[in-house]
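I'll show one example:
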Amino acid sequence: MAALFLLAALLLGRALHYALGAGAPDLDHARGTLMILEAQAFLWPWAYTVFLLLPLAILLALALWRLRSRAVHWEGERLRLGPPARALAIGACNSGSSLGAMIAPPLVVFLHHHTGWQGAFLVTGGLGAIWVALFQWFRATHPEMRATDCGSSARRATGPGVPWKELMRYRQTWAVFFCRFFADPMWYFFVFWIPEFLTRERGLSLAGIGAVAWIPFLVSDISNFFTGWVTLRLRSRGWSGNRTRRTLMVAATVVSPIGIAAAFAQSTLWTMVFLCVAIFFWMAWSVTVHTLPGEFFPPHVVASVYGWGGTGSTLGSVVMTWAVGQVLDATHSYVPVFIGIGSLMPIALVVGFALMGRGEMAKLRNYGTPD
């Protein structure tokens, strides 16, 4: 029950980020977010009750997703990458979180065994401090980061804004929303529920989970770059953006449900094989869907549309978390859970394709692109 409260707090923090808006996308605010993220990391060892952990979990999610939105904003408005390179940039962005998630299970298990749970938080917090220092050093030694930031701020000052009410009028906005509403819960199920599944159904100890839980994240890391590379190859051969996007999304939808077989596997090995295949193709879907705001809208509204998609992702994940708990309480079996999770991608594909139409850019009424 405590774990469900913490998961709900993480999702609440994510929702608060989108509710508060994606504003102030400059490096100074990113630096402030990093400082907040690092400060709260050192508070976790002194949170002895779930009620002390909840506000820290909310703050953690708020800071993490604020940084994630900043990365998407910089890719869309500042780098101004063409559509062929956009998927590779998104894949590179995703790979950072996948790499961290890959390192975390064995590292945390090792630290917990040798230093206790408080030491695990302190050491990982210390690693975060090193990361913040490296970010500051990189920023100080690359003046073009500040120059690009100032140029983007000038564009925002002179460029027109687009209110939410206006964005809600376009089916492309809802395509992004529902693609993430239906499909993203699959990823959060893998992240939050698979350790419990491995413990309950496969009998793995904490050490056993640490030995295998990193593997799906390695696979997702590979998928991030592979999807970007495939996108570049297809576009270089003359494929249109719409054809490339649809092909990747269909392939991901067809193969990802193989993860259902993990519920029936008789060994940990085959369980992980089925999960890894599902995660590889889900990540291919994710990279493709994350490029949609930049392909459907001009750069100055990409962050807003991405934020709306994140809202859909959060709402879908909240519903999924509640539903998984209800099904497990009622059936005491993961089989219906895996079947339900595996059915989400086809639903996302049908709804997404219906809203995307031919994949053309939205024509914003009375709002132009900043110079």
